[in-house]
Amino acid sequence: MPLNLGDTVPDFSCDSSVGPINFYEYIGDDHWSILFSHPSDFTPVCSTELGNLQKLLPKFEKRQVKVLALSCDSAESHRKWIKDIDASGYCGPKKDAGVSYPILADEERALAVKFGMLDPAEKDEKGMPQTCRAVFIVDDHKKLRATILYPATTGRNFYEILRVVDSLQLTDEYPVATPANWERGEKVAVTPSTPDEVAQVVLGDFSVVKVPSGKKYLRLAKDPGYKTPKVLKRGIAETILGTEYGAKLLPTVGRLVFAFALGGIFSSGSSRKTKKYTDATTNGK
Ligand code: BEZ
Q1: CA-CA distance, 33 to 137, in Å (whole number)?
Q2: Are 184 and 165 spatial neighbours (Cβ–Cβ below 8 Å)?
Q3: Which of 107, 98, 104, 105 lies closest to 126, judged by CA?
Q4: How many Å from the N-terminal Cα to the C-terminal Cα in the chain?
Q5: C-beta 51 within 6 A of ligand 1
Q6: What CA–CA distance (Å, rounded) separates 98 from 91?
Q7: Residue 223 alpha carbon to ligand 1 centre in Å
Q8: From atom 7 of ligand 1, which residue's Cα is the shortest distance away?
Q9: Which has the closest alpha carbon to 145: 135, 154, 153, 155?
Q10: Neighbouring C-beta atoms of residue 101, cutoff 10 Å
């Protein structure tokens, strides 16, 4: 039976790159987890994916998420492959390099079958089916919250997976849903079942987008889980000048501002050129 959203993800034990592992023991009671499957060891796209995942590990840890990879090869093979991944540079700067999360060994495809990860279109050299690039996002109650399936030929975007975790964790806490392409700090939609009075109390002021039907379903509020970094709230200049060091710098800063202002007046032609170049290259963003 395939796993559906909301199902409890079953426990399992197997060998892995870090030795024998039990899923429930590894994730504990207060962590989310993500299981990433890969077609096979020593393949190009998988190597870039595992390296990238290691690089972004602090971002997953910040969200209380433990990660596990799975590939249909032995633990011994995984350990040899990790040396290549570490050397490839995809894990980030040398000091942070080294795939440290477990890669599950699923030579017999027992887990791949249990989780419905096999891709009939991809076979290894022995004609055995390989796993596709599956993502299983599991919450701290061990419930399946989201799945994403990619074919072997398309590497995943790990920032998108972080974005999905952000959305799931935020919408668990507040009566909101996250719009298309939403990122942390951007406006969220009030869920349709939330009365205006409740939204006002829980989320503060919200706006209603006017639409031809006259229905008031598109209600937008501030991201209630987003904390503006201190430096943005106060303004960068205010933050720097507010420190003891900043106060000492003040006369120098004053002189620099004056010099820049004068420079701007005397070279207004060249500064216009710079602006045009900036707009063209950044698409005005
Ligand atoms: C890869 O990881 O590069 C890959 C694996 C299987 C099929 C195609 C690509």
Answers
A1: 6
A2: no
A3: 107
A4: 47
A5: no
A6: 7
A7: 38
A8: 152
A9: 135
A10: 19
Enter the pTM of the model: 0.80
Taking each helix axis from N to C end, the angle separating 44-55 and 158-173, rounded to the nearest 10 degrees, works out to 50
Q: What is the pLDDT along the chain (285 residues), one digit of tens a residue?
A: 789 999 999 999 999 999 999 999 999 999 999 999 999 999 999 999 999 999 999 999 999 999 999 999 999 999 999 999 999 989 987 766 689 999 999 999 999 999 999 888 888 888 888 889 999 999 999 999 999 999 999 999 999 999 999 999 999 999 999 999 999 999 999 999 999 999 999 999 999 999 999 999 999 999 999 876 555 555 544 544 555 445 555 555 555 555 555 544 444 433 333 333 223 333 333
Decide whether any atom of ligand 1 lies within 6 Å of the 44 Cβ: yes
* Size of the chain in residues: 285
Kindly state if the Cβ of 45 falls inside 6 Å of ligand 1.
yes
CA gap 27, 66 in Å, rounded: 6
Q: Within 10 Å of residue 199's Cβ, how many Cβ atoms? A: 19
53 lines ligand 1 (CB under 6 A): no
Q: Report long-range pairs for 115-122 (Cβ below 8 Å, ≥24 apart).
A: 115/3, 115/35, 115/37, 116/2, 116/3, 117/37, 117/70, 119/39, 119/151, 119/152, 121/151, 121/152, 122/39, 122/151, 122/152
Whether 48 is in the pocket of ligand 1, judged by its Cβ within 6 Å, is no
Tokens of 238: 């205010």
DSSP state of 53: H
